[in-house]
C-alpha cells in the first residue's frame, strides 16, 4: 500500500471520539481464524468480532460475493428494490417461520424496527393503551435510544435525557416476574434465547414456552432478538429452533453479514401488514453489496455438515476448557451453545474476566468478556480443530499467568 499514511494506536486517542477503549494492537490481516497485527504477531481469533465473523476472515465464498457484486451495483436506496435483497429475503423466508423480511444495517436498527412494528401492530388492532414492552434484566438490544432503553442495564441508557416510555423489565428465566408485569397493555415481550452481553445465559425451555403461552393469553407479540444467537451459531439456523418455540418477530444481524454490516427483521404476513408504505425506512437497508454477502453467508452456513461442525467444535471447546479448569480451577461452569460459550469465573476469580481477556491477547488469542465474571468465546463457526487446539494452548498460558500471581 504505497502512499498510505502510517498510523498507530496513539492516533486513536487524538482523532477518535473516546467512547471506546480498543486494545493496544492494530490487526491488519486475517485468514480463517488467524489474525496478524501491524508487527506481524499472530493471534487465534476466538472472538469473531463479537459473534460476527461467522465464517472467519476473508472466507473465499464471501470474498467472491463481494467482488462480484462490487463490479455490478453498489447501491440504489429503497426507491428501487434489487436482486441480492430479493434473493436473500426469499432465502430467509424459506428457511424460517417468517413470511416477510425488513432489512436494516445493524442489530440495533433491526430491533428498532421490531419494537416500532410491535407498537404499531398493537395500536392498530387494540388501541393506544397497548404500548407496554416487557424485556429483561441484563438483556442487550443495541444502542439507539429506544433499543438501549429496552435493554436491561439502566446504566447504558441513563444520562441522555428523557427515555422512551412504557418499557418494563422482568427477570430472565423467572416466569412469575413476567406474569406480574404482563397485561392487556402489553404489546410485546422481547428476549434473547441466550442472553449474550448479559453473560451467556440460556433461556430454559420451560421459561421460553411459558413466555410464549403468556404472550398468547394476553395478545402480545413475542420478539426474539437473535442478533447474537442467529445464523447457525447454536447449531441450528436460529436458536428458537432448538426450543421449538416460535417468535412473532425475530431480529438477526451480527453473523448474518459475516463482517459486512447488515441486519434484518423477520415476521409474519399479518404483523408485517401494519408497517404500511412510509411508516418506517432506511437509506441503506437492503443494500445490494450487503445482501450479496449475506446470501453467501447463509448459503454456506445453512448446510447440515456445517451446522454439525458447530456442535462438534463446541465439544472440543468444552473438553479443552474442562482440561484447563481441572489444572487451574478457575471456572464454575461453561454455558451457552455451539459457538457461543461463556466460561463463568468461580468465586475466587469473580470480577476478573478482563484480566483473563488481556492475558489471552498477550499470549496470542483473542477472546471476549460478557460482563465482569464471564469469558466469552464466539469464534468462526467453521474454525478448524487445529486452530482451536493452538488457541487453547495459548489460552491455558494466559490462565496460568493470571492464576500464578
Ligand atoms: C450486538 C447485539 C445487538 C446490537 O447490534 P448492533 O449491530 O451493535 O447494533 C442487539 N442485540 C443483541 C442480542 C446483540 O448481541
Descriptive account of the structure:
With 405 residues, the chain is of the alpha/beta class. 40% of the residues lie in helices and 18% in strands. The protein is built from 15 helices and 17 strands. It has helices at residues 9-15, 48-51, 60-70, 83-95, 107-126, 145-150, 154-157, 175-181, 205-217, 240-243, 269-272, 288-301, 304-328, 353-362, 385-404; strands at residues 27-31, 34-37, 42-45, 100-104, 132-136, 167-170, 186-191, 194-195, 201-202, 221-225, 249-252, 263-267, 331-337, 340-345, 365-366, 368-369, 374-377. The protein starts with 8 loop residues before the first helix and ends with a helix. The chain binds pyridoxal-5'-phosphate. Residues 106-108, 111, 140-142, 192, 196-197, 225, 227-228, 253-254 line the site of pyridoxal-5'-phosphate (PLP). Pyridoxal-5'-phosphate (PLP) binds at residues 106-108, 111, 140-142, 192, 196-197, 225, 227-228, 253-254. This is Acetylornithine aminotransferase. Its main location: cytoplasm.
List the helices and strands and how they pair.
Layout: H1 9-15, E1 27-31, E2 34-37, E3 42-45, H2 48-51, H3 60-70, H4 83-95, E4 100-104, H5 107-126, E5 132-136, H6 145-150, H7 154-157, E6 167-170, H8 175-181, E7 186-191, E8 194-195, E9 201-202, H9 205-217, E10 221-225, H10 240-243, E11 249-252, E12 263-267, H11 269-272, H12 288-301, H13 304-328, E13 331-337, E14 340-345, H14 353-362, E15 365-366, E16 368-369, E17 374-377, H15 385-404
Parallel strand pairs: 3-15, 5-6, 5-7, 7-10, 10-11
Antiparallel strand pairs: 1-2, 2-3, 4-12, 8-9, 11-12, 13-14, 14-17, 16-17
The structure holds pyridoxal-5'-phosphate.
The site of pyridoxal-5'-phosphate has 15 residues, from helix 5.
Amino acid at each position: 500500500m504505497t502512499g498510505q499514511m502510517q498510523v498507530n494506536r496513539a492516533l486513536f486517542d487524538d482523532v477518535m471520539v473516546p467512547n471506546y477503549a480498543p486494545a493496544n494492537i492494530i490487526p491488519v490481516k486475517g485468514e480463517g481464524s488467524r489474525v496478524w497485527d501491524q508487527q506481524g504477531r499472530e493471534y487465534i481469533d476466538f472472538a469473531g468480532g463479537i459473534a460476527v465473523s461467522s465464517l472467519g476472515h476473508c472466507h473465499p465464498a464471501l470474498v467472491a460475493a463481494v467482488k462480484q457484486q462490487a463490479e455490478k451495483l453498489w447501491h440504489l436506496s429503497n426507491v428501487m428494490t434489487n436482486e441480492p435483497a430479493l434473493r436473500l429475503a426469499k432465502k430467509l423466508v424459506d428457511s424460517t417461520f417468517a413470511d416477510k423480511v425488513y432489512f436494516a444495517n445493524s442489530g440495533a436498527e433491526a430491533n428498532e424496527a421490531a419494537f416500532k412494528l410491535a407498537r404499531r401492530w398493537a395500536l392498530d388492532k387494540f388501541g393506544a393503551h397497548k404500548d407496554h414492552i416487557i424485556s429483561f434484566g441484563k438483556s442487550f438490544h443495541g444502542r439507539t435510544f429506544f433499543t438501549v432503553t429496552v435493554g436491561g442495564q439502566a446504566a447504558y441508557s441513563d444520562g441522555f435525557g428523557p427515555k422512551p416510555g412504557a418499557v418494563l423489565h422482568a427477570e430472565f428465566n423467572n416466569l412469575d416476574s413476567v406474569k406480574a408485569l404482563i397485561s392487556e397493555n402489553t404489546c410485546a415481550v422481547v428476549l434473547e434465547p441466550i442472553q449474550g452481553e448479559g453473560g451467556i445465559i440460556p433461556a430454559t425451555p420451560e421459561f421460553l414456552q411459558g413466555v410464549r403461552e403468556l404472550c398468547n393469553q394476553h395478545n402480545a407479540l413475542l420478539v426474539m432478538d437473535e442478533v447474537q444467537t442467529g445464523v447457525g451459531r447454536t447449531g441450528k439456523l436460529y436458536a428458537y429452533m432448538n426450543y421449538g418455540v416460535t417468535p412473532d418477530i425475530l431480529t438477526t444481524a451480527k453473523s448474518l453479514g459475516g463482517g459486512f454490516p447488515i441486519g434484518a427483521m423477520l415476521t409474519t404476513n399479518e404483523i408485517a401488514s401494519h408497517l404500511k408504505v412510509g411508516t418506517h425506512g432506511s437509506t441503506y437497508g437492503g443494500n445490494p453489496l450487503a445482501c450479496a454477502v449475506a446470501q453467501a453467508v447463509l448459503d454456506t452456513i445453512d448446510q447440515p455438515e456445517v451446522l454439525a461442525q458447530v456442535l462438534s467444535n463446541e465439544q472440543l471447546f468444552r473438553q479443552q476448557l474442562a482440561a484447563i479448569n481441572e489444572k487451574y480451577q478457575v471456572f464454575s461452569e461453561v454455558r451457552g451453545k455451539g459457538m457461543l460459550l461463556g466460561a463463568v469465573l468461580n468465586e475466587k476469580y469473580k470480577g476478573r474476566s478482563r484480566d483473563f481477556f488481556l492475558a489471552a491477547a498477550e499470549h496470542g488469542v483473542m477472546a471476549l468478556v460478557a460482563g465482569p465474571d464471564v469469558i466469552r468465546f464466539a469464534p468462526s463457526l467453521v474454525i478448524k480443530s487445529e486452530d482451536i487446539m493452538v488457541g487453547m494452548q495459548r489460552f491455558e498460558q494466559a490462565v496460568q499467568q493470571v492464576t500464578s500471581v
